[in-house]
Amino acid sequence: MRSAAGRAEGDGPAVELEWEPAATVVPVRTWRRRLPVLVSAAAVVVIALGVAIQPWSDSGDAQSSPAAERTETAPYWKVRTLQWMRSSDKTQRPDGAYKTVWLSRSGTREQPANGLVQDYSREDTGGTAYVICGKPVLWDDLKKLPTDPAALRARLVGKATGEDVAEDLYNGMEELLAQSPAEPQLRAALFKVLTAIPGARVTERVKDSTGRSGTAVELDADTWRRRLIVDTGTFHVLESVDTARNDGLSWGTQKLRAGDLIQRTTYLSVGPAWEAPKPSKRT
Is 39 among the domain residues? Predict the structure, then answer.
């Protein structure tokens, strides 16, 4: 791990953490992780990634991160992650897969570990949508959301009922905190909604896999346990982790024990961006 001061040309202010690329990476499968955008066109182009770093920490100051500055004028929101996914057999490899996503009002462009840039859009909503309790929240809806936690929860949950509401709300809070250009006041309210979800457990001064400090919010969901580690200075997600909740969970050819890691997404950088790579022509 090393530090650098610069960032890719065309990007807005961001807080980034750079990792040395692994010699080989394995494809990452999506498992109970909803991107705020669904399917459409594929693209084929390789680009170089410019990265810079400054580790996040639990600072307690909502203005301490450059990414906390107002971002509504930038056309893209750029998110760079390192993802690890347990394989279905016992031939697990230790490395993870890097991915960069550029979200915008009209859709999403994604560059996974193979370097190919894909363009996605949602035909049903006409743009990027964060799904909260089954309802889409569009990019421009963010500025209309209330910043009072009780009013915000009521708006997001609506008339949704049933045993899945807590998990759906948890998933939605992750999407908005991890991948949206929400402003600081809204982020603070989203975090309060997250911590008030029935069954959620909050633990302060927790470190993620990179050593950054944050506050963990856990929720048990069926046979697995979900954890978000959040920097409570900026209310950005540092890491999301899924582990086996009990002994005996079947995962392909494996029988997992309680606490075994299933999936981990580490957020290396987030922030506004003025440019995104163009998708290639279809082949």
Answer: yes
